[in-house]
Amino acid sequence: MLNxxxxxxxxxxxxxxxxxxxxxxxxLFKISYRVVNDEEAAEDLVHDSLIKMNEKELVFPSxxxxxxxxxxxxxxxxxxxxxxxxxxxxxxxxxxxGEKKETASTEVELLKKETQLNVKxxxxxxxxxxxxxxxxxxxxxxxxxxxxxxxxxxxxxVKVRVFRARExxxxxxxxxxxxxx
Length: 181
Hints:
- The protein has helices at residues 14-36, 39-55, 63-96, 107-125, 128-139, 144-151, 155-173; strands at residues 9-10, 59-60.
- It is mainly α.
């Protein structure tokens, strides 16, 4: 995969940038999308992070190091974006005094949307430490070791946080409704 005489990846090198992009784009998009819940915004945040990596001309010892650096950058950018959007939404709702438009939908679509909203609302009620752990575990399909590396904590600590996050989520939603996909 990498040249043995030069195992480093240079983000400013077009070939290395493509390797990093191809290896990380889908994962980074999944993470960002689950945080911001907006495809276009998630794609923009991921691209901005990749551009930042390229502009800083970063050099990584391995593809994994590049991946974990990008995950941290995308995670933080997505959380900041989500917080900003929440503040904007609250200000907008305050101006409109909570008026909401409702569209007609079939019963199944309503139930599906309600379930998604319930899970999202429940996730939003979790402390940030637990919420990001669940997003990385359940939505980004990362294993405990990878999550630990991204967050700078032990694998054991990741397992404890996942357990606590699921436990709190179950209390918020109700035991029978804790299914995330």
